Amino acid sequence: MPSDDADRLGALYDAHAGPIWRYVVHLTGDRSGADDVVQETLLRAWRTPRILADDPETTRSWMYTVARHLVVDDARSARRRREVTTDEPPESAVRDATDSIFDAILIEEALAGLSLAHREVVVRAYYGGLTVAEIAEELTIPEGTVKSRLHYGLRALRLGLQERGVTR
């Protein structure tokens, strides 16, 4: 590997390995498995020159998406499933909740990035099922303020999700 390539690979590692590793550990709780996912993610980025030419934020978002897909693929792989034979079949089938768990984690992280004022309005509206009037009464603020915070809070939430590679 020429010195220039080694320097570029080192810069890629320095810029992105830490955040990607923390993200994977947050998703899986497996510190040693996170090393493998980070290595594969960096390798895929290295093999995709157009990604390296993008700005660092786009590269990081792409890498978060790749890492998430690697984690999901690993969780669904036959290697991870431990089949146990029994005399009787299970009473009912259980749906795989992997995607919904990852989605909940991503939404939680994106909500944490909102300001408190925006987060409390968005959470009350979408998780609490409250109307604009009910939120305004509960928070003792005008309805127009609730509408404004809801609009800008959802906008910031969408941007936070885009940074994590969830939406376009």
TrEMBL record:
Instruction: Please give the superkingdom of this protein's source.
Output: Bacteria
Any Gene Ontology biological process: DNA-templated transcription initiation
One short Pfam family name for this protein? Sigma70_r4
Task: State what protein this is by name.
Answer: ECF RNA polymerase sigma factor SigL
Q: Transcription among the record's keywords?
A: yes
Instruction: Report the NCBIfam families cross-referenced here.
Output: PRK09645.1, sigma70-ECF
User: Species lineage, top-down?
Assistant: Bacteria, Bacillati, Actinomycetota, Actinomycetes, Micrococcales
Keyword list, A-Z: DNA-binding, Sigma factor, Transcription, Transcription regulation
Residue ranges of every copy of the RNA polymerase sigma-70 region domain listed in the record: 12-81, 110-158
Assigned protein family = Belongs to the sigma-70 factor family. ECF subfamily.
